[in-house]
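Q: For a teaching handout, I want to show students what a protein-ligand complex looks like in token form. Below are the inputs, and the small molecule is flavin mononucleotide. Please produce the holo structure.
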Amino acid sequence: MKRTRICELFGIEYPIIQGPMAWITRAELVAAVSDAGGLGTLGPAAGEKNQEEAKDLDTVEKRLREQIRKIKTLTGKPFAVNFPIGWGKQKIMNERRIAAALDEGIPIANVSMGSPEAFTQKLHDVGVKVIHIVTSVKHAKKAEKAGVDAVVCIGYEAGGHIGPDELPTFVLIPQVVDAVKIPVIAAGGIADARGLVAAFALGAEGVYMGTRFLATSECNAHSNMKQAVIDADDTSTVAFGRRTGISRCIKNAYTKHHMELEAIGATFEEIREYERCGDNLKGWRRVPAAIIDGNIEYGSVACGSIAGSINEIVSAQEVIRRMADGYQEIIKSLRD
Ligand SMILES: Cc1cc2nc3c(=O)[nH]c(=O)nc-3n(C[C@H](O)[C@H](O)[C@H](O)COP(=O)(O)O)c2cc1C
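A: Here is the structure, written as tokens, with flavin mononucleotide included.
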């Protein structure tokens, strides 16, 4: 496969990156992706057994250290750790997570939901490479100015949190590529070699996938959640939550009622309250309700719209092998 600046920058064989996914991108998946020649990314809640653990900073730090050490016992290859900066309590938690991760010695930081100015210098000072997550040209330029090493551009098709400007991958990537000099990584709607070759054609130097890696044997998502991805077709997901923070999930009773609340003009607080509780969630918040407890009717089943083309659970290594082989076949077929 074509070697790009992303391969050189991160010391990886293939420019294929596994996106972080909260609870379900633990050390086992991260190491499997990196070992297969891609780049695995540890998710913010990796290794958490229940949501109570997330409230205690000492526990959060201990768990992160354990997960980083576990990755290092499973692979000698480079890996990344996700820091969704956020604000308030989440910001304090991520500052603590960054300090612990630097102490453990991580090669690459994946920074989302925050200013690229906040931590880039601090990470560079100790030799950590920085990937910043963006959803528009404006934010890609800001990240470049702050000195990040590469940007991941998330299109509207992607699973989980997406940009408010609703820019699909196919229009976002070429515009960002034209606007910045640092390498651009394409995300949103990519699950196989076709997406990889298309991303290269648009000028991206790597791809970043969440939903495809959700449906792998090493991913610890609840089996109901994996099955929902396998069962999904092209129209199964919806982007919702324009008032409280837009994300893409599989359509279910939760997304339906959430959209009804927005349609009748419910206040921000009323919608937030519904996101937090209701629907007999047995004490779970919406995301872990789906991911950990397998409640795919009332949980938040984050998933990209490419799920319709994912029809089986395979190993992470198999995902990467198929992309590498498929890449060669497509390139051959495109030659005159
Ligand atoms: C279940 C799920 C959970 C996610 N959790 C996170 C997260 O914790 N942090 C983050 O930066 N992105 C998160 N994402 C976004 C992914 O890292 C990635 O950007 C996205 O999945 C790419 O689009 P795709 O699903 O079409 O491959 C999540 C996505 C999914 C599907």
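A: Two things your students might notice: The chain has 14 helices and eleven strands. The CA atoms of residues 84 and 112 lie 5 Å apart.
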